[in-house]
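User: Before I run my own analysis I want an independent prediction to cross-check against. Here's the chain; please return only the structure tokens and, at the end, one sentence I can use as a sanity check.
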Amino acid sequence: EDFRRARLLEPHYAMIPFEEGRFWLPLQRELALSAWHEALSRVPAPEGGAIFSRMLDLAPNDAAFRARLLEIAEGHDALRIDWFLRVPAEEAKPYLAAFAPIAVRADPHRRAAFERRAAELDPASRR
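Assistant: Structure tokens:
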């Protein structure tokens, strides 16, 4: 109830649903993901990276959960690249081809990081 009221009182503040997600994470992961999705929808794109990075840091060692984090980053290309860079290799490798066009549009730092990770995951992709 407290989180619901806080969301209503501060409809644009992303840290309320972020903290709600932290609360739910050890108890009900689906509720944590829902709250974190709301947090990302409230934050302007450049600031979303910091919040998403914290989500990745807090994520349990669970591939299915990390896959759901990728889902909530849909529509945020920079966050999707950040996810690709941070998850274990076996989770990132299937997304290599799909994320290559996103990386081309990314800022130079993310593009270079993507290219390094792609070379690690698939040495044949080196230019």
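Sanity check: The CA atoms of residues 89 and 121 lie 7 Å apart.
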